[in-house]
Amino acid sequence: MKKIFSAAALLCLALPSFGQEASDSAKTEPKGFVFTDVVTIPSTSVKDQNKSGTCWSFAGTGFIEDNVRKVKGDSLDLSEMFTVYMCYLDKARRNVRLQGKGNISQGGSIVDVAYVMDNYGAIPEEVYNGLNYGEAKHDHGELSRVLTAYLNAVSQGRSVTTSWETGLRGILDAYLGKVPETFEYQGKTYTPKSYAESLGLDFGNDFVALTSFTHHPYYKPFALEVCDNWLWAPYYNVPLDEMMNIIDNALENGYTINWAADVSEKGFRWKDGYAVLPAKKNEADLNDTELSRWVTLSDADREAEAYKFTGPADLVEVNVTPEERQRMFDVLETTDDHGMVIVGTAVDQLGNKYYKVKNSWDTNQVYGGYFYASRPYVMAKTMSFMVNKNALPKNIKKQLNLK
């Protein structure tokens, strides 16, 4: 997801601050929408990233936990901050090699957790929680500022010493804690690598990252052009209808989805528990009574009225086409904001389809940390997603030449 220093990407970091305000209205009835779950895949509990731009790690870790649960029946709680630590190391190495031009932000992508588990391993949350700086919840503002200043200082010289990585590890150790070389867990001794191997997944081969855009050929991989794809990882490009077929097929077969999406939209209503993509109302769409009121409004009020709805009965959503989806991406209406996990499907009281999404902004919200995203919203605002290869329809898997 994007750097937290940009306005859109602040959503990945800042929206959890709604938690205190939302606690007053938590568990109240939603306004205008009534959802009935259709498919709900067992998933591990909702976590709280709090004041950290690490949604990508929470989403990717939850997704991996769900895949382990499907394979082994075990319900795990894996450390998000071990992955954050290892990603910071590799980001820093690339940044130095790129003479200070690499991404060193808090953000990350849907591929990062599987990358770390494949290359460095995994650790249970109870062994490594990454809270080594006197806080009860994650707050990475100071850590991010210190790391940025340190790496900027390292990269500004004409050359670098052999000590810079030792200094970097010192910072990470001070804030997140020193990563154990070995640890005891449930009566066994593990290294991070051996523990990851015990989980029953092939992290380098079991998963595939996908997207859908028209500026690259379909059925071929390309490096998705977002800042937080710091690995320059390949994403398979599929047509929009096939993107939705993959998502539906995964859910129907019991696989959750690691989902990166834009949550900066006017129709994203976190506290009310839904995300929709309302079409903007224009004067030509209004009847005489509505038009007579419209002309009395200020420009600001007209903008608010243009997207106003009370529920599914008066909601008209955007007709999402491949061309419209591409336009949104190219003009930065769709940006790389946030990572989450799609865990099921639902319908509203009129039978419209929604996707049930697990967030990482704590549970003090109307649906206990979940919300429902409409099908047009998912079609338009999905930046990318990751699924188990076994969740792909056979014809699409063959088309992508995946084994």
Structure report:
This protein is an alpha+beta fold and 403 residues long. Helix content is 34%, strand content 15%. The protein has helices spanning 10-14, 18-23, 55-72, 80-97, 112-119, 141-155, 164-176, 192-197, 240-252, 288-294, 299-306, 322-330, 375-381, 394-399, and strands spanning 36-40, 183-185, 188-190, 207-211, 221-223, 234-237, 257-261, 268-269, 274-275, 338-347, 353-358, 370-374, 382-388. Strands 1, 4, 5, 6, 7, 8, 9, 10, 11, 12 and 13 form an eleven-stranded mixed sheet that branches. A two-stranded antiparallel sheet has the order 2-3. Strand 2 and strand 3 (188-190) form a beta hairpin. It starts with 9 loop residues before the first helix and ends with a helix. Residues 2-9 and 16-27 have low confidence and may be disordered.
